[in-house]
Amino acid sequence: MSAQYEALEELEPGIARVLAHNPSAFTYYGTQTYVVGSREVAVIDPGPDNPEHIDSLVEAVGPRKLVAILCTHTHRDHSPAAAPLAERTGAPVIGCAPLALETVGPRADASFDGDYSPDRVLGDGESISIDGRPLTAVSTPGHTSNHLCFAYGDALFTGDHVMGWSTTVVFPPDGDMAAYMASLHKLRKRNDRIYFPAHGPPVTNPQQYVRHLAGHRMQRERQILKLVNHRPLDIPEIVASAYPGLDPRLTTAAGGSVYAHLLDLERRRLVSRSGDIWTGTGSASRS
C-alpha cells in the first residue's frame, strides 16, 4: 500500500480511491473510498464520519456530477460519511439495506451504523448508470446480512466480503458462515478481472484468491471439528488451540469466527452444545 491519506489516487481509467485516515487491526491502513466514473461519478464506501475525509471526497468529485453514494454495508468504517457527503453534494445514498444490530457483548471490529438511511436500496442484480455504463449490485451476505459488492465492467468492488490483506471477520449473530461460503461460491462463478476491496491492495487473481479463501475456511472448519471431536471445549479453549500466537487484539474476532463455524456445524448436526461447551458428534465435515 503506497497511497497517501486523503489524496485522490487514480488506479486505472475511471477508478480512483481516497484512503481514509482510520488505520487499525481491522481496517489495515484504513478504509478505501472509491470514486468511479469520469464525466459523472459514484462514491463507493464513503467511510467514517471524519471531516477531513469528507472534505477530501468533495474535492475528489470536484465539478463532476455525483450520481450516487454507495455503501457495501453499514459498519462504522464504511457508511457514516454517507449522510454528510449527501448533504454537501445533494447526491442520493444508494446501496445496501439499513441494518443496526449488535452482538451479545463487545465486537472486535467496527460496530453498526444505526444512522444509515438510504434513499434507495439496491437488490441483487439492480444497477445504476455511471457514464452510461451499469454499476450493478451483487448480493454477498456473510460478513453482514446486508453486504453488497458492486460490479463495474470487469471490476468488482468487494467491500469487506473479500479483502486484499486478510480474511473477513464473520461475527454472529449477523455474520453467517454458511452465507459467507455461499457468497464466495457465487463469486467463483463470475468472470471478474480484478477486485477492489475496501481494505488492502487490489486482488488481481480473483478466481484463485476466492478458492484460497474458501479452502482456508474449510480447513478451519475441519480443525475445529477435530478439536471438539477429541474432547468437549468452550470457545476460548478452541481459540487457544486453533490460533497459537494470536495477536491479543484479534482474540475477540477469532472467537466470533469460531462461533460462526460452530453454529454452521450445529445446523448440520456435526456438533452439539451444552451451555458454553461444544462437543463433536463424530461425523465428518463438508468435503
UniProtKB/TrEMBL annotation:
InterPro entries xrefs: LACTB2_WH (IPR041516), Metallo-B-lactamas (IPR001279), RibonucZ/Hydroxyglut_hydro (IPR036866), Sec-metab_biosynth-thioest (IPR050662), WH-like_DNA-bd_sf (IPR036388)
SUPFAM superfamilies membership: Metallo-hydrolase/oxidoreductase (SSF56281)
Database matches in Pfam families: Lactamase_B, WHD_BLACT
Domain called Metallo-beta-lactamase: residue spans: 30-199
Regions annotated as coiled coil: none
Protein name: MBL fold metallo-hydrolase
Source organism (scientific name): Sphingomonas anseongensis
